[in-house]
Design brief:
single chain; mainly beta
């Protein structure tokens, strides 16, 4: 399934809708205001809370936790690399890796060594816009939360996370 994630570049808070390939709204992301670090909630369109994303502060490299129903689902850590960005992910779903290109615009998400999703940031857009392709058998909300973390680390203009 393909999703379109579009976040306004200049916004007071992180709040955006994730649409599917048919432009139908599927998820809502809401950021918390006036907090240290990024804190975001992912909801389905019925208002059900699915995922909570929290940036860990005072780390040498960016680190995030993803929660589902109050339990840590995953820990995402940016790895130290010189050219191509890479993240390691410890999760209840298995071992994941995010490998990016040198400009941090395209990423492959690998689960136990197998590609399960592709993330691509559009070059020319009035908003940070990503296409996220996910294989059907994966937890789409979880994979989308990984794409949100990538945006927060590399492209979020509201915080300095690099």
């Amino acid at each position: 399934m393909r999703y379109l994630v579009r976040q306004k570049i200049f916004a007071f808070s992180d709040r955006f809708t994730i649409k599917d390939e048919n432009q139908l709204p599927r998820y809502q992301v809401v950021g918390k205001l006036l907090t240290l670090g990024n804190k975001l909630d992912l909801y389905d369109m019925d208002g059900n809370h699915l995922i909570y994303i929290e940036q860990k502060l005072f780390r040498f490299l960016p680190e995030y936790l993803i929660y589902k129903e109050g339990t840590v689902l995953a820990r995402i850590k940016k790895e130290f690399t010189f050219f191509k960005p890479r993240f390691s992910i410890e999760s209840q779903y298995g071992d994941f890796t995010l490998d990016g290109n040198i400009l941090a615009h395209d990423f492959n998400i690998l689960k136990n060594g197998r590609i399960v999703a592709w993330i691509s940031k559009r070059w020319f857009s009035f908003a940070d816009t990503y296409t996220v392709d996910i294989v059907d058998e994966e937890d789409h909300a979880f994979i989308l939360s990984l794409a949100i973390v990538i945006d927060q680390v590399f492209h979020d203009n509201n915080h300095n996370n690099n």
